[in-house]
Amino acid sequence: MLELLPTPPTDPLWDLTYEFGSDERPERLNLVLGVYRDQTGTTPVMTAVREAEIRLAERSDSKEYRGLSGNAAFNRSLLELVLGPAGPTDRAAAVQTVAGSGALRLLADLICRTRPGTTVWISDPAYVNHRPILEAAGLRVRTFGWRDAEGGFDTAGVLRELQDAQRDDVVLLQGCCHNPTGVDPLLDDWEALAESAARRGWVPFVDLAYHGLGDGLEADLLPTRMLAARVPEMLIAVSCSKNFGLYSDRVGCAIVLGASGQAVRHAETALQNAARTLYSMPPEHGAAVVTTILEDEGLRAAWRAELEVMRGRIMDNRADLIAHLSALGCGDQARSLARQKGMFSMLPLSAQQMLRLRRQYAVYGTTSGRINIAGIPAHRIPCLARGIAGVLGTADAPRAIETLPRRQQSGAAAAVQA
Predict the structure, then answer these.
(1) Residue 407 has pLDDT above 90, yes or no
(2) Which of 102, 151, 164, 194 sits at 20 to 30 Å (Cα–Cα) from 396?
């Protein structure tokens, strides 16, 4: 049987990760996978998570099945977190999933069971796994542009292209910190998208994977809450990987909003049935950790404080990279990065230039130009800037380093001298 299997494509992100693992250069820098790393290059266990795990270990007395929807308390906590205390939770249901990817797949299956062959619109560029998940569920995929010529959000272009979206088409939007570009709509743009959905009848499908790491937790959730208040139906895929640091515990949630309680109950049962055929039920540990944190006032405050520290480090990394690029004569590229937020930035480099960056400077990013800003140790930012300037051919045209803030001057000087 296996002899009949054609050669399948490999995953490009993991291919690069494996290549990085075999690279023996000590200066190599892995900016491929979307994981937060601290100054030492480690992906830490959050303090609130560690404390929640201690409490769970002390009181754990059973490993009994939770059921097809997973941890009910977790689902309630995520509904309130995402939609807000005054949100439309009375017409919403949540099912725990195997991380955000599992939520995307369950909701894609729900779309296909409801209306086979539905068209789902995704941004171009999009998260690398969006199209494969949707097509594997049997859905048609169309794309709409995301950025304008200056690298910002293309408000007019997006709204113009979505005029072709038919009633009951689905539009997949990332709620904040767009992956891979780091470019988000402004609040007025979200208002325009909500108005388009309400008027034209397309269904918003929001992917929430980075809330808390852009403009702050409440600000990052505001567009999703705005959409939920404006449309009769909506789908939301939630991941706890990034903002709780639970990458390997695979914690997520699929949320459906409907116009009636009966419709939501039917959707919840359909999600349970889909889960039953895929993995039966999700793992408990990570969901129990999140629930313990969100239900305890002290742990919740500690988690939010640590999340703010992570967000601040990401912002500082991006600001430092912008400053060093400007000092190396890459002003246009620096201005492009200044429009971005969240874990990822899209470098204005071609696939060939990204290959040069990897081979010549040992900096690993995707061929599309995406790098993980959250994965750079601060002391390596000058090296990264030097590599980018090197492949652009502008490293010998620096501005005066004295224009940089004091904490950035020494690193920028080192980059220029190198």
Answers:
(1) no
(2) 151
